[in-house]
Amino acid sequence: MGKRIIVQRRGRGSKTYQAKVSAYKYQLKIPKNLPSEEGRITKLISSPAHSAPIAKISYSKGSFFIPAFKGMIEGEKIELNTKNAQNGNILKLSEIPVKTEVYCIESRPNDGGKFIKTAGTCATVSKIVGGKVVLLMPSKKEKEFNKDCRAIIGVIAGHGRKEKPIVKAGKKHYMMKAKNKLWPRTSPIKMNKIDHPFGSGRGKNPKSKIAKRNAPPGKKVGLLRPRRTGKKK
Fold first, then answer.
1. Of 26, 143, 156, 182, which is most buried with the most CB atoms under 10 A?
2. What is the pLDDT of residues 164-176, one digit of tens each?
3. What's the structural domain count of the chain?
4. Are 75 and 180 in contact (CB under 8 A)?
């Protein structure tokens, strides 16, 4: 029988692992069919569920929320669906010059933006090949996008968020609780055998971290079992 390890307890969805719904009330998406006009940054918001500050953008058809770019201020104006590649402007990838930094990139045209939303990150337009635009991602890997996908010009604000020490455990507790993260994390080898497959045993001698191929879900923890070993011939 499988053990009741942390992965299974999270799946049950008890109060211990539930995030605050109010923290995720802002949907960071670029609206469909944006008109070619100016938008105004009406408010900068600090959200406990997001690593970067959030900007509320107002335009003729309503308002929407996006991650704030570095240097953004309230009352500033940005251009929507134009060809001017200035910070905060929302353009199609085909209209953005090479070596421009962008974020909140759409994976498909008009899906609202799926890639690059973390504080201090951005991708760089590398080259344009036919109907595809190649971007250099923060992982240093290149990824192709449809030329009609949209993105926001600039770098997301909040780059130095990890440089300031947290100092108090209580502050760390509320930071992790807001994002539904289990903290503090207990090492598996310090648990009892009933709580984790790596538990029990004398001293801190870790068990094998590669699960058996026919292990039940409760014991399938640790590293992924390789399909084969040795040099491929």
1. 156
2. 899 999 999 888 8
3. 1
4. no
Label residue 212 left, alpha or beta by phi (over 0 means left) and psi (-120 to 50 means alpha). Answer: beta
> How far apart, in Å, do the first and last CA atoms of the chain sit?
39
Q: How many residues does the chain have?
A: 233
- The CATH number covering residue 207 comes to 4.10.950.10
pTM exceeds 0.85: no
Peptide bond into 184 cis (omega under 30): yes
Structure tokens at 49: 């569920």
User: Could you tell me which of 108, 102, 74, 98 has the C-alpha nearest to residue 88?
Assistant: 102
CA pair distance 2, 9, nearest whole angstrom: 12
Cβ-proximal residues to 72 (8 Å cutoff; 6+ apart), any chain: 41, 44, 55, 87, 88, 157
